[in-house]
């Protein structure tokens, strides 16, 4: 190890301009250890900030990192789950691949929740785990787990490295697979012997082709034509906007398309912020706690155009009552998504960055004022029954919605909003205002409580010049609050709002509505959050009166550095509208 | 498939009924040779609680390319989705599914019978002859026969040999050749040249454009 390090130091400037790919410090043809090869790969892939936690089986890699601390910014988290959620938050705001290190055994198993979350929400990640020496595999060695097999169902691809010389190609393939096509998490498990072993380094070549892997299906023109024909004939077309538009960096193409065709668009929870909230064609959110109009009118539109979304059950409600009258056009990069849940009339396979402009070229310039008006009318109805009360409650007790309302007023919609899972998440998704894409970070598919705090840390590193506000419930916060330590140590400027209703609110809401108010284990007590924050050197405040809300939020936003604001909100408030489980989208309840 | 019914609508319904029934399907998967891929493919079935009736891995007509042959009993719609999930795996090149009338298939079985029984019991000899069994090994105390064929035939012989002193029995997984396939060479070239071929995507709606586009 040491001789390689010396060589590296001597030859520091060399290698940078030698190849197409940015090379690190090591000149090709040098003998280096597998661990140094890992560092070189990270530099070549343009990794700047990443997360991790050391341990026995990954020590050689951390030892190599010691010499790279000036170029690679490693953030030490407090738990591997926090590490991977931070990497997810980073990937979401930056659009780059999130990277996380963990040791073998418990270190690796602690990644599993984050892997599952990233897999279902298509987040590009490369996770590097240490593993016991190759000769100990299968012997129940100390901190040995079968990480490859544990993580197989929750990774897009995984691979175990047992020879140092495999490291450059394995990592090149990992980054390529993670970020191309439908993105997803990749895990590389490196045995300790491969980390210390020396090999002849041949430089780093990024991967741009894997024989058996087709990231993008071919675009078929006749399908685009068929889709355009349907859209041109449609009288009540409706667009569903999913995260695919953000992942495909096709926000502009999307906007041009809906503006030309004059089609109202509603977003999924993960599609949030791909279009500005105030866009005249943005009619709100789909799904169980989405807006009234988009849900009801799904069952009235004649052509439904789904872009980069996967018809999750939380969006569709009962499938046999979902958009049965509509012809469905489905744009997706993943062929397995077409016809998976909803039978497609015209499938448009491909990257929406390519297919949307093709479609835009073929659709007629149109407006559908009457149809759009229907959405607006239902919006007014929803405002009367739900929204006005939520944003401007008459009672003394504060609501979650009014916190969001004032926050919008102060941030003007420029902040990155990170949310956890539960009532506060649905309220935030419903009411947070977005001007800019990649401003919404939440655990959508997996619904991982405890996601927000670590994800906010990553989101901040991924968007250093932006205000990052994490909105978390009192339950979810207690699942990963150890990451306050990371915020403290690395001076991460995130603002934390805890919307405290002293309940596990979403479960309580279901128990109230569907289980005769039998409140089974939803009554959760909390520590003094402000005191906890103080223990970590983080400023904070707790408020329970409306007159303090605006000034407290302003103080939080103005504060230099991280800040925790606890807002006591109504204990038994419910999130409405709601499509009860097992009901069709048109059966949405306003109260 | 069902011609007995008269009238467009009725045919449609009967086809739907057929489609809603579980059938035996053979899934053929061309893959890279990668450790862990077997598990990746297997869990696609187990995650959905679908039983694999038979699974075989072997080399294919192309050097370095592996071929999985998987038999399941399922509704066609489910099989279609499973095949797409299989094809989504990074190391999978291509996956096909076929009903039994679209393939030629065989299974192999070995039977160990007491040699004494074969010599003394005429019935045993007659059965083995009838089912086209070939002797693989003949020892003083036992004889091993093999047969190949469809599962029903093999199972039948096992059933009748059972009471006549069958000592040991084993049957292999199904191997199948797709009638309409021209082999994988050409397809592989597309993959290697990064030029995805003009795949025919079956879509029941696009096949009936007039119906769909007259709104």
* Structural domain tally of chain A: 3
What profile does the largest beta sheet of chain B have?
A: 5 strands, antiparallel
Structural class of chain A: alpha/beta
CATH superfamily of the largest domain in chain B: ACT domain
**Spatial shape of chain A:** globular
Under CATH, the homologous superfamily of the largest domain in chain A reads Thiamin diphosphate (ThDP)-binding fold, Pyr/PP domains
Strand order of the largest sheet of chain A: 3-2-4-5-7-6
CATH class of the largest domain in chain B: Alpha Beta
Quickly give the structural class of chain B. alpha+beta
Strand content of chain B: 25-35%
Q: Distance between termini of chain A?
A: 66 Å
Global outline of chain B: elongated
Topology of chain B as a string of helices (H) and strands (E): HEHEEHEEHHEEHEEHH
CATH class of the largest domain in chain A: Alpha Beta
CATH topological fold name of the largest domain in chain B: Alpha-Beta Plaits
Q: Classify the helix fraction of chain A into a percent range.
A: 25-40%
Mean pLDDT across residues of chain A:
95
Oligomer: heterodimer
Give me the CATH fold name of the largest domain in chain A. Rossmann fold
Q: How does CATH name the architecture of the largest domain in chain A?
A: 3-Layer(aba) Sandwich
Q: Report the total helices of chain A.
A: 24
Put the structure in a nutshell.
Chain A is of the alpha/beta class.
Keywords:
heterodimer; A: 591 residues; alpha/beta; Rossmann fold; 3 domains; 6-stranded parallel sheet; globular; disordered N terminus; B: 215 residues; alpha+beta; Alpha-Beta Plaits; 2 domains; 5-stranded antiparallel sheet; 4-stranded antiparallel sheet; elongated; disordered C terminus
């Amino acid at each position: 190890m040491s001789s390689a390090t010396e060589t590296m130091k001597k030859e520091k400037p060399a290698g940078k301009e030698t190849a197409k790919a940015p090379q690190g410090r090591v000149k090709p043809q040098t003998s280096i250890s597998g661990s140094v090869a890992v560092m070189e790969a990270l530099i070549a892939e343009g990794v700047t900030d990443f997360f991790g936690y050391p341990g026995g089986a990954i020590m050689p890699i951390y030892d190599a990192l010691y010499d790279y601390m000036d170029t690679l910014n490693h953030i030490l988290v407090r738990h591997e789950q926090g590490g991977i959620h931070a990497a997810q938050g980073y990937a979401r705001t930056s659009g780059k691949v999130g990277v996380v290190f963990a040791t073998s055994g418990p270190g690796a198993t602690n990644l599993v929740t984050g892997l599952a979350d990233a897999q279902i929400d298509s987040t590009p990640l490369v996770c590097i785990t240490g593993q016991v020496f190759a000769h100990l595999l299968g012997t129940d060695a100390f901190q040995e787990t079968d990480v490859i097999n544990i993580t197989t169902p929750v990774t897009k691809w995984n691979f175990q490295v047992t020879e140092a010389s495999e490291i450059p190609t394995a990592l090149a393939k990992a980054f390529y697979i993670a970020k191309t096509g439908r993105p997803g998490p990749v895990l590389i498990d490196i045995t300790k012997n491969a980390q210390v072993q020396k090999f002849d380094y041949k430089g780093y070549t990024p991967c741009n082709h894997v024989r058996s892997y087709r990231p993008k299906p071919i675009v078929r023109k006749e399908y685009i034509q068929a889709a355009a024909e349907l859209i041109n004939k449609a009288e009540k077309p409706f667009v569903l906007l999913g995260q695919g538009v953000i992942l495909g960096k096709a926000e502009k193409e999307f906007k041009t398309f809906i503006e030309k065709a004059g089609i109202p668009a509603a977003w999924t929870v993960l599609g949030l912020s791909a279009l500005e909230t105030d866009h005249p064609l943005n009619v709100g959110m789909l799904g169980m706690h989405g807006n009234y109009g988009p849900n009801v009118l799904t069952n009235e539109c004649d052509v439904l155009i789904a872009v980069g979304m996967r018809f999750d059950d939380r969006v569709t409600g009962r499938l046999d009552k979902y958009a049965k009258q509509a012809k469905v056009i489905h744009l997706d990069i993943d062929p397995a998504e077409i016809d998976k849940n909803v039978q497609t009339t015209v499938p448009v396979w491909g990257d929406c960055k390519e297919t949307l402009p093709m479609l835009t070229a073929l659709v007629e310039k149109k407006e559908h004022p009457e149809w759009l008006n229907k959405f607006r009318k239902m919006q007014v109805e929803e405002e009367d029954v739900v929204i006005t009360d939520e944003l401007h409650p008459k009672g003394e007790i504060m609501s979650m919605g009014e916190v969001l309302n004032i926050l919008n007023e102060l941030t003007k919609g420029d902040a990155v909003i990170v949310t956890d899972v539960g009532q506060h998440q649905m309220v935030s998704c419903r009411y947070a205002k977005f001007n800019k894409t990649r401003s919404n970070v939440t655990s959508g598919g997996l619904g991982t409580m405890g996601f927000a705090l670590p994800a906010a840390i990553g989101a901040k590193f991924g968007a250093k010049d932006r205000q990052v506000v994490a909105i978390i419930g009192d339950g979810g916060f207690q699942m990963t609050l150890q990451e306050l330590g990371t915020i403290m140590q690395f001076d991460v400027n995130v603002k934390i709002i805890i919307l405290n209703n002293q309940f596990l609110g979403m479960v309580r809401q279901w128990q109230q509505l569907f289980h005769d108010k039998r409140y089974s284990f939803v009554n959760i007590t909390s520590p003094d959050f402000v005191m906890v924050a103080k223990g970590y050197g983080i400023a904070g405040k707790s408020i329970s009166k409306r007159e303090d809300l605006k000034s407290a939020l302003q103080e939080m936003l103005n504060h230099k550095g991280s800040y925790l604001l606890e807002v006591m909100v109504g204990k038994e408030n419910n999130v409405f509208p709601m499509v009860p489980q097992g009901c069709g989208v048109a059966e949405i309840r306003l109260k | 498939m069902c011609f007995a019914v008269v009238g467009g609508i009725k045919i449609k319904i009967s086809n739907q009924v057929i489609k809603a029934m579980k059938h035996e399907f053979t899934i053929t998967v061309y893959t890279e040779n990668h450790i862990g891929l077997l598990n990746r493919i297997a869990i696609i079935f187990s995650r959905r609680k679908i039983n694999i009736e038979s699974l075989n891995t072997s080399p294919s007509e192309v050097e370095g390319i592996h071929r999985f042959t998987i038999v399941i009993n399922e509704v066609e719609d489910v099989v279609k989705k499973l095949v797409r999930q299989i094809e989504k795996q990074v190391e999978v090149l291509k996956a096909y599914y076929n009903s039994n009338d679209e393939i030629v298939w065989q299974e192999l079985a070995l039977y160990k019978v007491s040699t004494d029984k074969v010599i003394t019991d005429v019935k045993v000899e007659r059965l083995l002859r009838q089912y086209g069994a070939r002797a693989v090994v003949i020892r003083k105390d036992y004889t091993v026969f093999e047969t190949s064929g469809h599962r029903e035939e093999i199972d039948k012989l096992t059933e009748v040999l059972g009471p006549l002193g069958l000592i040991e029995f084993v049957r292999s997984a199904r191997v199948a050749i797709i009638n309409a396939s021209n082999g994988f060479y050409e397809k592989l070239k597309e993959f290697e040249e990064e030029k995805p071929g003009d795949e025919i995507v079956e879509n029941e709606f696009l096949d009936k454009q007039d119906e769909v586009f007259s709104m």
